[in-house]
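hey m, so remember when u said the tokens were messed up on ur end? i reran from scratch. heres the input so u can diff it against urs
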Amino acid sequence: MIGTIRKHSSWLWWIIAGLTIISFVYFMSVPGANKGGGSGSSGNFGVIYGRTITAQDFQEAQAEYYIYYWTRSDGHWPDTSANVSRDDMERDIYIRLLLAQKARQLDIHVDEDALVTAAAEFLRSISGKGQPVAMDKFVAQVLAPKGLGVADLENFLRNELVVQQMIQVLGLSGALVTPQEGSQLYDRENQEISAQAVFFAASNYLAQVSVTPAAVAQFYTNSMAVYREPDRVQVSYAWFNVTNFLAAAKTAELARTNFESYVDSAYRQYGATEFADAKTPDEAKARIRGVLYRNRALADARQAANDFAAAVFAMEPVKPENLAAYAKQKGLVTRTTAPFSARIGPEEFNASPAFVRNAFQLSADEPFANPVVEADGVYVMALAGQLQSAIPKLEQILPRVTRDFEDYAAVSLARRDGTNFYYNASVQMAVGKSFAQTAVANAQSPQVLPPFSLSSQELPGLGDRAELGQIKQAAFTTPPGHISNFQPTRDGGFVLFVQQLLPIDETEKKAGMPRFLGQVRRARQNEAFNLWLQAEANRELRATPFFQKMAAAGAAK
């Protein structure tokens, strides 16, 4: 994309860079290009479709996978996710390598205009505000810390477009859905059902729970694994609050002879997009000045933090207490966090993943971390304590265990009454009583649910009493005129009475069929493509060391 961006420089940067000149954030040294900490630069990576996979091939696919994962996991990286193992990552990297090789065989290419459009849409989609994120900001803040760059983003976007073309070609058989089959599928997905329900909520049973020391102790004994604390860490830190540097930053910026012309230029170029919600040009320019002041203040805070950290790191002997000692000399206040886990982070402030990651890399031998830039300033931290995973004693967490016991007992009582209601209702409805009569006779209040179908995305009034999927499962597996079994939920449970299937709105069906049929065909295409991919992977990836290792491990079990 570097070449592509240059070629379209007369207009592309205004599309994908947004407020580049204003949103620039100062960074010190950036970690070396490690491609997310992947494989080394040499080694055996196997053969796919008769072509030897090089270290460069593997590293490029690994970089693409990292960006792919980031886009689909709310901004997390696979190497910091507890849900992704190294084997998971390597498997998916090899899948990407296989697809790239197949694309070469099929001579599938992406033109530069499509790539430019994909880049613009990508940067717009991740902002969540309808306007694109600045390219340099995205690279500096998101990609560079993982050793990734613009070239990796280009490869990722290019190959995503290639895969979409491959799905269309190799999944073509899945697109052959007849209108008759589509009509049947539409009816199945969109036919609504009318139903009533009786909910049994645990909150209504809390007053009936008998809390005794013996019962709480027994509950704790049976649930000890739930209360195990993960590995935790405490850090002491000096905080260089960005607001403390704003006044000086503002003075320095205003002293620049070309500052206002700089603001005017930025407004002419970006005001209509980045500050479209500003009521007047003066308001937009004021906000541009604010961004510039804050960026200058953050840079100054970073410099002050660097100077402070350099002095602390130079003190002998190296020990965590040096942070507080030097801070006291400089008239700075240090604070200490409560113990926190890698998953949750410190409770005192909203820390970034980089802060948490650095905290868990501290040790007695390396008690300090390099300054960490956060939205509110820069932090210099030192190890204050490490706590290994352990189960607290009952007396340490008695209030928490007591609340959990009350909730558990209340849910049990709700489920007991719900199960009894189901059996009583089955008998009483069998002799001619209606569901409503049966509910009232058992001191319950039936609720009429709004009509819903399998395609419904929400059910007004349901709240958190049950998951919509549970309601659908019970409704569409129960014949009309009958009641479902008692369905346990996290908060208790419910019994559903299916009154009837409602007729399809033929006018609405006629209008919605083209879009629905397109969705079905795309889903079938994806399914056909996945079946093809599974067969190709089973055959072609046999000659790679990773899949040979997996096969050997499976045979050893």
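this time it looks ok to me. The chain has three domains: 2-170, 192-226+396-501, 232-387. if urs says something different then somethings off w ur setup not the seq
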